[in-house]
Amino acid sequence: MNPEKVIFGFFIVLALTLNFGFFVGDINDPDHHHVYELFAVVVVNVIATILKFGDRTQMGAVLLATSLVAVLQLFAAALVWTFAVHISGTGLTPVVMASIVSLSGGAMLANVISVVLLVIETVMLRR
Amino acid sequence: MNNIIYIFFRRMRQPLLTLVITYSIAVLGLVLIPGQDPDGNVWHMDFFHAFYFVSYMATTIGFGEIPHAFNEAQRMWVLVSIYATVIVWLYAIGTLLSLFQNKSFQQAITERRFANRIKHLREPFYIVCGYGETGSALVSMLTERNQNVVVIDIVSEKVQMLHLENLRQYVPGLHGDAGRPVHLIEAGLEHPLCQGVIAVTNVNEVNLQIALTSKLLNSGIKVICRADSHDVEDNMASFGTDYIIDPFDNFAEHLATAIESPDLYLLNQWLVGMRHQPLSDPIYPPKKGNWIICGYGRFGKTICQQLRNYGISPIIIEAAPEKTGLPDSDIPENEWVSGRGTEAVTLEQAGVRDAVGLVAGTDNDANNLSIIMTAKMLNPDLFVVARNNLADNEQLFEAINADLVMHPSIIIANKIRVLLATPLLYAFLGLAAKQSHEWAASMVNRVRSVVKDQVPEIWELDINDERAHAVNNAILEGDKVTLAHLLVDSQQREKRIFAIPLLLLRNGVVSPLPDENISLQYGDRLLMCGRLSSHYRMEWTLQNEHALDYVRTGYSKPRSWFGQLIAK
Question: SS in 3 state form for B385-402?
């Protein structure tokens, strides 16, 4: 058992599960999507990305790419949230909430790809 | 590029992870701990403000407690967070800074930059491996002649020196082992415009390695190598190294030429001289009488061999006869003396008082100088040949007034420069060596008559559209342009310019001293020597149609449509 692989797998899967947790619910209902959850998703995703730094393998490069996509989407979601609440002052209207959640949905797709790749790599190693 | 990013990420992974985790804990704590606004209501900090606060706290900027003053619980948390985040921040920044100062990282960056610069070269260039005495002399000679050069050297200080030197062209330099193929490739070995590789490091094996790499990876280019032993020379020749230059053999040939035909030697010296050098005087090494050779190393042996070819049996003085194999060789006992040669006793023993020539050829400059001074005191009429090992001592050798000074680095650099910058001159000198003494004497007189007191300028000219636009057009129109036309002053037809055509290369056939009435053809290559001002005058005739018309017919034809109409 390689401890590095355990930590790596842990963060990738955690990124997906947290992302899913934030994503589920009515897309435009602010009560279904908590800000703490978004914070956790962003932090875990950034950590998962940094963990892939310096991995020279082909798989490592693809995983870094998918993680970067997820982080980008989540940053966009967080920015929209901040803008709506603090800068424009419109608050969490259904329109704003929908765009935040759909952005996090995109990030979730990238996270799904990461996990699928991880599973493929594991299966290949077994053989 | 890959390498740099890889090193960067690899080293920054740990600090960045620590930074992200510490930041998020601090932010989360600030969001969770309830505070109070000025009206006494319970208030929770949001993520936006928490992140803002932590960002300026960690970087020790400290804008104060916003948006509302903190309560005790929050201050407690901030107290802990300050120490944690500031330390983590310093750790990350510190790692980043040490990464940039890291030698291997910096080397990776400079190599990358160097390789990029080479990749974007758009003009033909040569790679010079080794920037020692030979390399630096060669680079300045080649850049003088507007050739592009790339330098590799294993010592970083020498590459640094390259930037300080006042060269005419920009010369990119790489600090690295030229014996490693990766460095040669970075220096542009596989670049389509790479013309040749010149291996002049001071290690024979490295030169061999460079020659081998270059021939294997790019068989189409010229490879020129320095070699000090016949062993290595044979090895290099076996896989097709184009030119192998041995400074000792070369100098021995010089000396042989000087003994055999002083005029030919003088002609050689003038033609290969550097621009603005004064014309040297002829030297006459004595052909008869006793010669003394001090030092029987590689240099001494080669000289000895050459002298024997002229029936001169020199007396050898050697400090360590056993090392050089003297007692076992076929040289009779009475023809060598054991000793350094720096003291009068040894020199007397070798018969310096009635000797005619002396070769101070040890590998130690101080000893060579001392030998010459002692010998000159004993016999002021000696013909002295000195070997100068280090360029720093050049002035001393000038001051001691030796008749011939052998400087290995300069000999090699000069030879390579002639080979690369004026290959026709190389061919001409080869042909000249086969001519008679009278021919050489008449050539010396001809050259002396066109130049004033400086060595002649040597230039090659190609009859094609780029280098001789006007001449090429005239030939295409069917007009006859002879070599004599080029030798006429383009401002005063009655006068001749100060230049001598030395060689004509036509369809692969070289003819020395071509007839001036020969008509030029497309693709001809000519070697000229003469004054620098005459070179520039000749460019007018070559490129400018009016100038060419004038030298051919005496007046310039109107070239414009209107002018032609009036002329009719």
Answer: EEECCCHHHHHHHHHCCC
